[in-house]
């Protein structure tokens, strides 16, 4: 082994370095060297705090005029039957199998819709959509069957309008159900109607009974239903 001067100096400094590092104690609670501390410790504003950065002095700013929040599509409809029909022409079911090309997406939507139906709709419309839930059995105007009423002929967008703004004595669900959940429910109702097509032909007496309180136009004959429809149209604000 050749021990020239450079090697002696290098190995000497290595030993020194090891001794130095071993001898110091690291305090991990202390911050490292911070080059741009403003990046790490940016001032946080609470939503309603005064804020000198903006001209109007507020932290919470209104959306820029003409913009909408991501996923928040505004609906330009009134709570009227005419607008419900227009919604049927204009609104597309985002889960429509044709437009997605992946049937599992629709199946998942139907599954979610079944869950929401149990929570929000079964009380009136009944487990199979015949309109025989516990609420109409106690005097509430019975809903038309979802299997044989007008809804099988309605376009998805019209049902979306009904679930959003309500119809007659049924109030709207825009406050409780997100647009996605409303579409899930429509897909579930459609799947029930598909199943009913196969199992209920010709109409069973059960189905006929459930629609006996309904006029030819599919509305319950109870006059109070018509009254609340007017109220609904005046007050509904999704
Ligand atoms: C409080 C009872 C009640 C609840 C809860 C309810 N509905 Fe209704 N629904 C009705 C009544 C009553 C009608 C008939 C309204 C009318 O036209 O006068 C109706 C009508 C409908 C119609 C239109 C049927 C037609 O042939 O005109 C659809 C579709 C519908 N409901 C779906 C739903 C869905 C989906 C839910 C769950 C989110 C739901 N409803 C929750 C009572 C209810």
Summarize the entry for a quick read.
With 238 residues, this protein is an all-alpha fold. It is built from eleven helices and two strands.
Describe this structure in words.
- The protein is mainly alpha-helical and 238 residues long.
- It has a domain at 81-235: Orthogonal Bundle (Cytochrome Bc1 Complex, Chain D, domain 2), CATH 1.10.760.
- 47% of the residues lie in helices and 2% in strands.
- The protein has eleven helices and two strands, in the order H-H-H-H-H-H-H-H-E-E-H-H-H.
- The protein has a two-stranded antiparallel ribbon with strand order 1-2.
- Strand 1 and strand 2 form a beta hairpin.
- The termini are far apart.
- Residues 200-238 have low confidence and may be disordered.
- It binds heme C.
- Heme C (HEC) binds next to helix 6, helix 8 and helix 9.
How do the strands and helices of this protein lay out in sequence?
Elements (H helix, E strand, L loop, with lengths): L4 H19 L13 H4 L40 H10 L6 H4 L2 H18 L1 H4 L8 H4 L18 H10 E2 L2 E2 L7 H21 L5 H6 L12 H13 L3
Antiparallel strand pairs: 1-2
Helix pairs in contact: 3-8, 5-9, 8-9
This protein binds heme C.
Descriptive key words:
mainly alpha; two-stranded antiparallel ribbon; Cytochrome Bc1 Complex, Chain D, domain 2; disordered C terminus; binds heme C; 238 residues
Helix proportion range? 40-55%
Number of helical stretches of at least 4 residues? 11
In the predicted model, the low-confidence regions spanning at least 5 consecutive residues are 200-238
Q: Order of strands side by side in the largest beta sheet? A: 1-2
Second rung of CATH, namely the architecture of the domain at 81-235: Orthogonal Bundle
Name the ligand types: heme C
Oligomer: single chain
CATH class of the domain at 81-235: Mainly Alpha
């Amino acid at each position: 082994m050749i021990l020239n001067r450079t090697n002696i100096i290098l190995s000497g400094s290595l030993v020194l370095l090891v001794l130095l590092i071993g001898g110091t104690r690291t305090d991990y609670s202390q911050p490292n060297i911070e080059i741009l501390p403003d990046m790490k410790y940016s001032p946080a504003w609470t939503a309603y705090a005064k804020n000198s950065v903006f001209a109007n002095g507020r932290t919470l700013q209104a959306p820029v005029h003409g913009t909408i929040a991501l996923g928040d599509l505004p609906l330009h409809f009134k709570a009227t039957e005419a607008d419900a029909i227009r919604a049927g022409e204009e609104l597309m079911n985002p889960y429509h199998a044709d437009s997605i090309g992946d049937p599992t997406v629709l199946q998942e939507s139907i599954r979610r819709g079944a869950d929401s139906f149990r929570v929000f709709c079964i009380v009136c419309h009944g487990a199979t959509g015949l309109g025989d839930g516990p609420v109409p059995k106690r005097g509430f105007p019975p809903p038309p069957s979802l299997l044989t009423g007008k809804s099988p002929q309605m376009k998805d967008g019209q049902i979306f309008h009904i679930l959003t703004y309500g119809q007659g004595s049924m109030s709207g669900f825009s406050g409780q159900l997100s647009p996605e959940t409303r579409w899930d429910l429509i897909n579930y109702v459609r799947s029930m109607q598909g199943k009913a097509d196969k199992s209920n032909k010709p109409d069973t007496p059960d189905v006929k009974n459930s629609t006996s309180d309904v006029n030819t136009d599919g509305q319950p004959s109870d006059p109070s239903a018509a009254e609340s429809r007017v109220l609904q149209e005046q007050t509904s604000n999704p």
